[in-house]
Amino acid sequence: MAHWREEYSAALASRDRREKANTALYDAYTKLADRTASATTTTITSLQSSSVTAAGASPRAPSKKHHPQLAGGVPAPNPPSGTAPAPAPPPETQTLLADLAEAQRSRAELQAQLARATAELERLRKRSAQDGRRLRAFEQEVAQLQMRLKDREEELRGKAKLLEDFQDEMASLNLQLNMAEERSARFQQENQDLVDRWMAKVGQEADAMNANSRFS
């Protein structure tokens, strides 16, 4: 009766084995991707910050009061006004960065969905275990009730047999009583006939004796 629970548990275990077979590889790849994305983002952000800082800074104007001259009256070249601005990242890098950020966001959403699905799976497993215990309890109760019902049916069959035997015995006794009453009535009638004949005979003898006594 519990084969469906065994099949359901086996299917869940098989699914878990398939999902967990490459867990270590997935985790290692995820950590590597996170480190790569973090390093790339940091580098690109630093380059962009340097570019913006360099572009916003005004070039230093040469001072007219300090013009060192070389021999022969030739003025010395001006010192460099500042660091050259960092080049902006190419569009391909920006596209890859955007794709990487989108992939990171999608992975975070998938992780959240996985966490919710795992929690739901655990809840369903607990509910399945509870339902399994309740089902086993109901199966035991049904088995006990079936056994009690079988005992009551056997008891009823035994009592019905006793009642049938009692009715048969009562019918037999009634038949015997009727036959006995018929014999009793017949015996009474025969006895009454005998009494009547004997009384008639006695009366005749008495009449004869009276008649003889008158003639003597």
What's the Cα radius of gyration?
62 Å
Q: In one word, what is the shape?
A: rod-shaped
Q: In whole angstroms, how far apart are the ends?
A: 117 Å
Number of strands: 0
Secondary structure class reads mainly alpha
Q: Identify low-pLDDT runs.
A: 54-77
Helix fraction bin: over 70%
**Order of helical and strand elements:** HHH
Structure characteristics:
mainly alpha, Autophagy protein 16, Autophagy-rel_prot_16_dom, 216 residues, 0% strand
Task: Give a structural overview.
With 216 residues, this protein is mostly helical. It is 82% helix and 0% strand. The chain has a domain at 3-48 and 88-159. Helix 2 runs antiparallel to helix 3 (91-215).
Strand and helix map with partners:
Elements (H helix, E strand, L loop, with lengths): L2 H18 L2 H34 L34 H125 L1
InterPro entries: Autophagy-rel_prot_16_dom
Protein name: Autophagy protein 16
Keywords: Coiled coil
Q: What's the gist of this structure?
A:
By secondary structure, this protein is an all-alpha fold. The chain is 82% helix and 0% strand.
